[in-house]
Amino acid sequence: MFTKSVAILGGDRRQIPLGMRLFEAGLSVRLFGLPHENVASPLCISARWQEAVTGAVAVILPLPATQDGKHISMPLIPDGKAPRLDDVLTFLPAGTLLTGGKMDEKLQKQASDRGLLCFDYFTSEELQQKNALPTAEGALMILMEKLPRVMRGAKIAVIGYGRVGQALAQLLVSVGADVTVAARRREVLAKAAGCGCQPILIENNASLLPLAAGYHAICNTVPHCLFDEGFLRVLCRDTLLMELASTPGGIDAKAAQKHNTPVVYALSLPGKYAPVTAGEIIADTVLSKLYEEGVI
């Protein structure tokens, strides 16, 4: 017997496993903004978003919550049917938990002003940690698709050794790649070296110039401009450059265009390459917040 319900508005292939995980946790789940044929039988799809959110203790928006700053992101339904964020915020009673991914400051302030509990699950350390592996696996799949060689012996540089950089470097080492890790902190590089990677200390952008020749791929995870015109001017044309960092990224897009440097922008990989896992990760993060706030 379900005692509490949640609403899921919009989103993509992650939303169904997200809903199923919440259902398995004992919640009634209502959805709006997904094609009927995509919705699993234990979940309820609502004809109107107002119906979906009525009585819900939490309303879950997609990742990203909005593409245009005005409407909830609903890429799987026809244009014109996505509800306006203002309308949803006005409709929800105070005390409702509103959660979504990449919720900007304006949206969060509007929600708080309405008396809503607001939580951007994309900023959760739990989600970021769990998302590192599907991101790394997605990056590996792209490398296998794009490079005209096997991974064993491929010379690949990973820039940054945070959550994603560490997961990717270790995955590449496990398949036999020759991996170089570039990072700003010596203690981080010592950890990378202990995992079988060649270290490069980043003291300035010029520190990366040794990567301009002899590498089959360079994978950037640092959201600061490291690959500027000076680097891209001398970069070997056969090197695959992959951007994994969130906006603004680490690659000078204008310089890349100027020098005809091909860049693979590999963003939001968990949702593209592992939507079931990605949806379950969002569900676990939201459930943690629901328990923490005493909502369920």
What's the layout of helices and strands?
Elements: E1 5-9, H1 15-24, E2 28-32, E3 44-45, H2 49-53, E4 56-60, H3 85-91, E5 97-100, H4 105-113, E6 117-120, H5 125-146, E7 155-159, H6 163-174, E8 178-183, H7 186-194, E9 198-201, E10 217-220, H8 229-232, E11 240-243, H9 253-258, E12 263-265, H10 269-273, H11 275-292
Parallel strand pairs: 1-2, 1-4, 2-3, 4-5, 5-6, 7-8, 7-10, 8-9, 10-11, 11-12
Overview of the structural elements:
With 296 residues, this protein is an alpha/beta fold. The protein has helices at residues 15-24, 49-53, 85-91, 105-113, 125-146, 163-174, 186-194, 229-232, 253-258, 269-273, 275-292; strands at residues 5-9, 28-32, 44-45, 56-60, 97-100, 117-120, 155-159, 178-183, 198-201, 217-220, 240-243, 263-265. It has a 6-stranded parallel beta sheet, sandwiched between helices. Helix 1 (15-24) links the parallel strand 1 and strand 2. Helix 1 (15-24) crosses helix 11 (275-292) and helix 5 runs antiparallel to helix 11. It is elongated and about 60 Å long. The mean pLDDT is 94.
Question: How much β-strand is present in the residues?
Answer: 15-25%
Q: How do the strands line up in the largest sheet?
A: 3-2-1-4-5-6
- Unreliable stretches, pLDDT < 50, 5 or more residues? none
Look at the structure and give the mean pLDDT: 94
What would you give as the CATH superfamily of the largest domain?
Answer: NAD(P)-binding Rossmann-like Domain
CATH top-level class of the largest domain: Alpha Beta
How many domains, in number, for the residues? Answer: 2
What is the CATH architecture term of the largest domain?
3-Layer(aba) Sandwich
Give the beta-strand count: 12
Which range best describes the helical content: under 10%, 10-25%, 25-40%, 40-55%, 55-70% or over 70%? 25-40%
In angstroms, what separates the terminal alpha carbons? 14 Å
C-alpha geometry: elongated
For the sheet with most strands, the description reads:
6 strands, parallel
